[in-house]
Each structure stands twice: as structure tokens, then as C-alpha cells.
Amino acid sequence: MSIEDMTGQGVTITQTGEHGAFGGELLTINFGPHHPSTHGVLRLIVDLDGEQVKRVKPIIGYLHTGIEKQMEALRWQQGVVCTDRHDYLSPPINNLAYALAVERLMGVEVPPRAQALRVIMSELTRLSSHLVWLGTSGIELGAMSVLMYCFRERDTIMDMNEEISGFRMHTSYIRPGGVMADATPRFFDLLGKFLHEMPGHIDEYEDLLTMNPIWRARTIGIGRLAPEVAKVVGASGPMIRGSGIAWDLRKVMPYSGYENYDFEVATNDGCDCYARYLVRIKEMREAVKILEQAVDRLPDGPINVDDRKMLPPPREELETSMEAVIHHFKLFTEGYSVPPGDVYVAVESGRGENGCYISSDGTHKPRRVKFRSASFVNLQALERMALDHMVADLVAIIGTADTVLGDVDR
Amino acid sequence: MLESYVPLLIYVLIVLGLVGTVASLSFVLGPSKPTRKKLAPYESGIIPETPAMRRLSVRFYLTAMLFIIFDVEAVFFYPWAVLMRQLKWFGLIEMFVFMGVLLVALAYIWRNGGFDWD
Amino acid sequence: MGLEDLVDSLGQNVLTTTLGKVLGWGRGNSVWPAQFGLACCAIEMISTATAGVDIARFGSEAMRASPRQADLMIVSGRVSQKMAPILRTIYDQMPEPKWVISMGACASTGGVFNNYALLQGVDKVVPVDVYIPGCPPRPEDLLNALMILQERIKAQGIITR
Amino acid sequence: MIADQLITDKGNSAGDEWITVPAPRLREALAALKEDGYRLLVFLTCVDHLADSSREWPARFEVLYELRDMEKLRDLRVRAFVDGDPPQIDSVHDLFPPANWDERETYDLFGVVFNGHPELTRILMPDDWVGHPLRRDYPVGGEPVEFSEEHETWQTPPPEA
């Protein structure tokens, strides 16, 4: 049957008596919410014929936090807190999507130094997100030591996050109107040392896994996603680049100054789990290259838009000028209001295209905030990728889709 | 003639005694409060409605049977290994013939796809 | 049945209290957590289990996937309304003696999100022993909570609740 | 190119092109746009304009489709205004496969019924949930918090309802 009408087959719980290939009945099992290898609380209803997967039906919603309703009840600058927490593996990238959307609605442009700092934080987050993915996917397929190596580097990135924003994971560093604070010299020392060592660490991961026969046996040819199916299903990120299509929003629709960094789009036309693994490894190397260029050419200047409506005035001005006190008071009691209209901004996160759609009605709270989540769409491709594979391969397929359930359920 | 087996008997008794006490101790002393909810089948947090007792695919049977055949083959090596010195050349050649027959069977099954699943 | 009947029959005397101390020492130093990773706190829980912060020094390295072999449930992450009955089912299927650590603000009080979708605090569903503030708490906070729990286990003796 | 009489309104909002299409003829418009090159449906969602004074809205619910042409790198937002209880619109899951789950989520959170969807059931909320949370007349919920004027207003539906 064609790709189009394969959608929405959905799986009904098999009635007893439906037979598999060799006469055995189909067994329906729960690859349930509380499972060590589902990267969060994803539940799959799997119909098995012996060891082979005949049908997979993902059931989500076990981590639905009502973030979009929460943001409708919060003011514009308070919403940044929620954007950190729905895709908890790449918080600054979600902040960036929200901040760019609000800035385009307000019609303001952040100074170049803020754009460079945003690129630095985004690439650091992409590295830490891929490290968590590699660690957890490795341990699920039996590579215990990969987890220890990857989380060692992740901890250095968390120390850098803490140095620049005072918080390990949910930094809320990127806000509408600029960034929270300027980077301290110690941050650049840590970053310089990290960039010097990181290529060596990536080689360590490659030595551990790339030519490892068990890793290759468990990932080559597993979870095939043909290029045209990937395009039709709307996959994005490593899922589509693993099938040979060079679609990277940082190159195709550049934002926040990505056009003046030169890096390659990591693609691999193997269309299977191993290809997506190689794509993510190459993306880590490209992220290190971008970080080096960003640190070398970091422009100086202000880090925030100097629009007093949007951002509080500096402290020392409060003693002298009366307007500063008025701005300060209005900002922290009612918050600023965004002109009516709606906008959609898409950014490239570790998982794919994470976007933020905002519809504003001119009041000081958004009318509607919708997060386009890459994992939500990539998870729909799981139904096709897992057909006729072994149950054990389901673990590799869930791993390669790199879904974060907070992002799926919002 | 039997007394040469006495140490073996003592050894078996010690093993049975040890295992027996350890198992029964944990059974007697350990707190056990079976409640209906605790004994419900664990399937990743969901109490399953569909019965788990289903007719299994015949492939499981095939795989089990192949395992048994080649495992029992290993049992025949033990008595041969004990008497290898006395049997001299005849025993060696005989065992190679035995292994050869089974290797042919293994190759036949492998080529006909008895081992791969789908 | 076993030791608890011993305590009922003999009451608190030198035999049962010393036996209680030995039991408490054994249980306290080998608390096996059930992997109940929900959201962001789960990532910090994993990084607690890795070499950097190393929960293995406290005997809790073996994160058990099935509740049958676990005696501590670390609720790490926000509990939605759809997940609450499953959380209770998993808690029921854990053998006594069992303890619960509620890791992070979302598990303890609903945290940042006070809306229709989240259970405002996991203590509405399961009895909680130690709460950890933070969103997400640092891995060292989780170790601190584990040490507090270990003291409490050692003080409990034979009958735990 | 899409027939002109299909487009009732057109414009550009903060750099994004958008057109408005009459809801009953939505499938026809989307099929034409798909032939025109907009092969990818980025996302589909709904905005509830209850008591929205910023502009004159033709109907309460605005279902919007963000389409993208991956060759010519252009985006287009198609709006369709729907009203009624429950608001009805045709499903496009066979034209754009990603729409399958998006429609189920929009039905789940807004109550917009998509005719022709193979399995229109709740996807995020528990199956026995009553009401559609993201509608403006649905209270934010959660627990009242002392000394905070914001949270009192969250318990009751917003005043504009």
C-alpha cells in the first residue's frame, strides 16, 4: 500500500485467534510507560508474532504538563521558564525559539554580541543533548562504558552552564530582548579547555562504538527510513539527515547569525540506526567547529536590546532618573505587551525542528503559544520503522528516534 | 566397593544442607505481605487485560529442539574424556567420527535456514 | 511470620533491638532504587549514577528496572494525571520494606506548573520519606537525600512502618 | 496555483505569509497547495479567540495549518475559521501524514472534530477526561496558592468567558 494510506492505521488490540506466520497467535504486550529503555514515559502496544513485531502503536500523554496552557496564564517574560522545561535536553534552544518569536513580533533585533552568545549556548546544548543520547542509547544496547564517558563531558558542559547562567540544566539564559548576563572570563577559559579536549573525546566514543561488531550488528539495517518516506512523514533533524537529505534549518533558514559560520551539514545515506549514529557524531564535531569560530569572532558591545519597554533599566540608573523607576515599576507589575499578530519561528534542536508559534492579542499575556515538537513527529515514524523487526530491535529504534517525552507531550 | 563413593555422598549432603537452610531461612524470616495488588502481573505499570497464555509460534519449539540436540552431544564427551587414556587411538578416531556426524547435521540446518528467525 | 512475630512475642529487649540494628545496617547500606525516571530530574538521576558523582559509594548503584527487586522508589520528574495510577501500581508491586524519595520540585509540590495536568505533589498518591527541593536538584542533592534516608532506615529496626 | 476565489483573506504578519480559506473547502485548498509545491505540513493547531478584542474574528476557533515548500524554501500559513458546538472541519491526514497526531491533539485539547479521521480519540489527556483544557473558558486549574493574586483568578474561568 502507498505511504499515504499507511498513516493512521492505528493498532487495535488484537482479538484472540488472529494468527501469525507460523500458526502462533499474535501476543499483545505493553512496552509500557515504566520501562528502562523508552527514553521517558512512552508506552508502546506491540503485537508480536513470536519474536517479530507485527504492529506498534505508541501511546503518549503520560508526561503531559499543560505547558501551553501555563504560558497563557503567565506574562511574556515569565514564559521563558516554561520553555526550558518541555524539551529538557536542549533548554537554551527552546528559549531561543520563544525569544526570536517574541522579538519578531515586537520588531526588535538583538545586538550581534547577544546573537553570538546565543549561538554558543545553542551549540553547547546540542553537544550535551547528543551526549545524553549517545550515553543512554549505548547503555540500552549493552555498551555500559559509553554512558560513563559521555556523562563526563556532559558534566563539564553543565559546569559551563552554571558558570554563565548560575544553573546546570534549565539555564533560561536566552530571553526575549537579549541574554541574561555577559559571559565571564572563567567561562571562556572553561570553554577554551573544553574545545581543546572535545575532539579527542569524540574520537574515544568512535573507538568504542563505530567499529564495534556488537554495535554494528545491533544498528546496521535496523529501523530503515527511506528518504521519500522520511520527507512524507515530516521527519526532521538526524532522522531526515540519516536518510541522505541535507535539511538543516541552520543552513536552510538561518537565524540568530548562523549564516556567518561555516560548517557542513552532517548527512549519511544509510537510512538506518547506524547512519543516524554517524550523523550525530559528525554533528558533534561540527558543533565544536562552530563554537571555535564563535569564540574567535565574538563581537563586543551590548548584550541586550536597549528598549526600556522590554527590559528593566540598569540598577544604578534607578537612583537618578524618574523614567527608569516608572519603567522598572511598570515592567515588574504588569509586564510589557506585544503588538497583536502571530508568528512562527523554527530552530534546529538536537532532535530536529523545534518551533514556537505565538498568537498575541495585544494584552500582556500571550493568546496562544504552540511548540512544534520534533519528537512528536519523529515518533509517528516509529510505527513504520519498527515493522517486521525483532522485539530487541525496538530498543534500538526508540533510541535512534531520540525522542524526549517532555517534548512529545508538552 | 561402595566406600570410594562416601566422600561424594558427604559432599552432596553438605550442598543440599547449605542450600536448604539458606532458602528456608529467607522464606521463614523474610517479611512477606502478599496483597492482591502486589501479586498482579507487572507489565511496565499497566495491568494487562489480554490473557498471556497464547499459542506460541512453532519457531520457539524448533529453536528449543536444536539446542537440546547439540547440548546432549556435549554430555557424551564427559565419559570419553575420563577414559581417553585407555581408549588410545581408537577412542580418539571414534569421537572425531561422532563429532563429524553432528557437524554435518549442524551445517545442513544452518544452510537450510533453521537458525534465522524470519 | 518471621522476625516481626518475634518482636511481637518477645517485645523490645536486648535481643530484638540488636537484631534490629543489624537489619537496619544491612537494609540501609544496600538500598536498591527503582528506575522511575519521568522528566528532567531523571537526567540528573542518571548523572548521579555515572562515574562523576557515583551513587555506587552508597550501595545504590543497581538501579532496578522492575519493582520486584527494588526497595526505594525515586520519583524523579513531574507526575501527570495520566501517570498517577501507574505510579501507584508500581508502588504497590514493590515488596516491603519500601521507601520513596520525591526528587525535585515537580514531584514534591507540582513545582513550576500549577495547572490541570499535573499531580500537585506525589504525596497525594504514595507516602513519601524524603523530599528534595530543586528543579532539577543537583546530583549531590540526591546523594544528600539518600544519606538522610539511610540514617532513617538504620533507626527503624525490624518493623519499618 | 490555488484558485483565487478560495482565498478570502491574505496578508503578512511579522514576516510570515498567511491566507484565510473558507472551512468547508479546506481540503480542496490544501490539495491545490500541495500540488503547488507545499509538500510538508509543519504543524496544525487551533487558536481560541473567545472575547479577543484585538481584531474582528469571523469565528471563535481558528484552525491553522503551517505549510512549507522544501524546494523553494517558503512557508505559508492557512487559516480556517470554525464555529459550532463541537466545531467541525475535514481531516487532511491522508494528504499530510503528520496531520494524524496533530489532529488528535487538537481534538483532545480544543474539541475540534476532524471528520474522516481514522481514530479521533484523546492522545494527551487520560481517556476519561472531561472537557477540553486549552479552550479559553477552561480554568487553568491547579491548587490555589495563598498570597498570590494571580492564582486565585486561575481557579475560575477567565473573566472574559
Give a structural overview:
The complex is a heterotetramer of chains A (410), B (118), C (161) and D (161). With 118 residues, chain B is an all-alpha fold. Helix content of chain B is 68%, strand content 0%. The radius of gyration of chain B is 24 Å and the shape is flat. Chain C has one domain (31-156): Rossmann fold. Chain C is built from six helices and four strands, in the order ααβαβαβαβα. In chain C, helix 2 packs antiparallel against helix 6 (139-156) and helix 3 (40-49) packs across helix 6 (139-156). The model of chain C has no long low-confidence stretch (mean pLDDT 89). Helix content of chain D is 18%, strand content 27%. Chain D has helices at residues 26-35, 99-110, 149-155, and strands spanning 9-13, 16-20, 40-48, 61-69, 74-82, 88-90, 113-115. A five-stranded mixed sheet of chain D has the order 1-2-5-4-3. Chains in contact: A-B, A-C, A-D, B-C, C-D. Chain B binds chain C through residues 28-33, 35, 37-38, 40, 42, 45-47, and chain C through 1-4, 66-68, 86-87, 89-90, 92-97.
| Number of distinct beta strands of chain C | 4
Q: Assign an overall shape of chain B.
A: flat
Structural class of chain B: mainly alpha
CATH topology of chain B: Methane Monooxygenase Hydroxylase, Chain G, domain 1
| Poorly predicted regions of chain B | none
Could you tell me the strand content of chain B as a percent range?
Answer: under 5%
Please indicate the count of domains of chain C.
1
Number of helical stretches of at least 4 residues of chain C: 6
Main beta sheet of chain B = none
Oligomerization status of the protein chains: heterotetramer
Q: Can you identify the CATH class of chain B?
A: Mainly Alpha
Helix/strand order of chain B: HHHHH
